[in-house]
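To assess whether ligand presence alters the predicted conformation, the chain was also submitted together with zinc ion. Input:
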Amino acid sequence: MASLVGMTTIRTEFCHCGASLRQTAEGGCPYMNPGEGSCLYNPKEMSFAFHIEKTHGKARAGRLITPHGEIETPVFMPVGTLASVKGIPQDTLEELGAQIILGNTYHLYLRPGVETVRKMGGLHGFMSWNRAILTDSGGFQVFSLNELRKVTEEGVTFRSHLDGSSHFFSPESAMAAQIGLGADIIMAFDECTEYPAERERVRASMELTLRWAERSKRYFEEHKDEVPWGNGPLTSDRGPEEKQVPRFVRNDKNEGNAGEGARATQALFGIIQGGMDRELRRESAERTIEIGFPGYAIGGLSVGESREMTREIVESTLEHLPKDKPRYLMGVGTPEEIVDYAKLGVDMMDCVLPTRAARHGLLFTSEAKISIKQARYAQDEGPLDPNCACRVCRRYSRAYLRHLYAANEVLAQVLNTLHNLSFYLDTMRRVRHSILLGEESRFF
Ligand SMILES: [Zn+2]
């Protein structure tokens, strides 16, 4: 947040359910009890809600309420593949203002295994992260890391990229894994269609994803109470100091227990497929909405198609998604692209780019993309990005960062990742700010 210093601060009063009081005055709070004028929202009974505070063009600024805190949207979600955002400790993620991070079911299922995580209170307890988490279904990794996968109606057989051992994911087992991992938002099991592909192949794949979406939802509805924290302490009303509480204290079932009958559950999102065919994307959207989910993701993009095509498919698919539900675009993009997608009306995005690029010395700045390994930075005393207020840019010179990278110091990866993540999170906060201001600004 430090880099927002100097920008106009927007204060909006909120009902504790997340709907703004202004909306409430207009009858907008969906939980308002008209007789008493009080909000009926109880975070100990309700797990998930989404409210749009303001729109500007197609862009939306909203609030997503989860059992582990609120998320301001549009949001960028750092990727923590193996229950770790590579190189960045959880307290630093909190400092950077990350409100939700992403974990990969495929990787966590293979290592350390779902049961290990479940026994430790799910991902929140295991990695000591008390804010929101989203897990993917594993479908994309099975698709991208396994050339020898075998897809049947029942599910996908694949080989571990670690030791070659054989495994099987079905909609049911992918749901069971995600319930055990205990993220706040989980994803239906889908087939990510390869690109390029014939239309008939794309249609068949889309139909399979729709059948799997129904099976995912059925299994989830029957087993959602098995989430590791479902009957445990809820954190919706936690104070800022609670994030420092060690895991072993927070997991004590006697501490802050929500009480008998209080149950928070995960939210299961559906995924729209349909390849690069706008008509199939429309059909996929309509039929996935018919099945009914609290949020919808656009999957199957960034699989080798041109950037223009990604944008075209995103824009056309968004037209078919409900306005009152969160929209999650999976696995994109550059800083320019995430701004663009937020302008089109996407609420949630994730991408490995800021963290992966950082480890290769590629740094996003307000001026340009920098390859810190270049010799021209060897004597450069200036900050990495003069317009960034992250702790790397406040403290270190380009020359020092270049030296760390050239000498292959571990600190290079830590500092580079910290800056890139800060840049992405700041970018999204600025976009949100612009939507709230509703005026022409850098982003609109
Ligand atoms: Zn910085």
